[in-house]
């Protein structure tokens, strides 16, 4: 478990090196296309349903963080992402989870949410 958390922290930390992808605080948004995710990860029906539930939860928590005080915003985004990663870790196989980690890293960087992960 400690190794996984360390790997996630390193991956997310590496993504924070790009300062050009910063977003304004009012643009916090992370929409997960579960259909494409299911195809890419080759999820079965149960995994796909759980991924849908977890994606909805992640989206709502990210949107909720948008309205938090600026001092607590990074903590809420980080908590939302790590909660999602933990849920997906138990849902996916080892290979699927490795692919999912790469996707999350790229998605966070592309959406400009990676700097929230480095603020703590």
Any idea how many domains?
Answer: 1
Total of helices: 6
Question: In what range is the share of β-strand residues?
Answer: under 5%
Query: Rg to the nearest angstrom?
Result: 14 Å
Instruction: Determine the N-to-C terminus distance.
Output: 20 Å
Structure write-up:
This protein is an all-alpha fold and 120 residues long. The chain has one domain. 74% of the residues lie in helices and 0% in strands. It contains 6 helices and no strands. Helix 3 runs antiparallel to helix 4. The two termini are 20 Å apart. About 7% of the residues have low confidence.
Give the helices and strands, then pairings.
Layout: H1 2-15, H2 34-41, H3 45-66, H4 70-91, H5 94-111, H6 114-118
Give me some keywords for this one.
120 residues; 6 helices; mainly alpha; 74% helix
Q: In short, what is this structure?
A:
This protein has 120 residues and is mostly helical. The chain has helices at residues 2-15, 34-41, 45-66, 70-91, 94-111, 114-118. Residues 17-24 have low confidence and may be disordered.
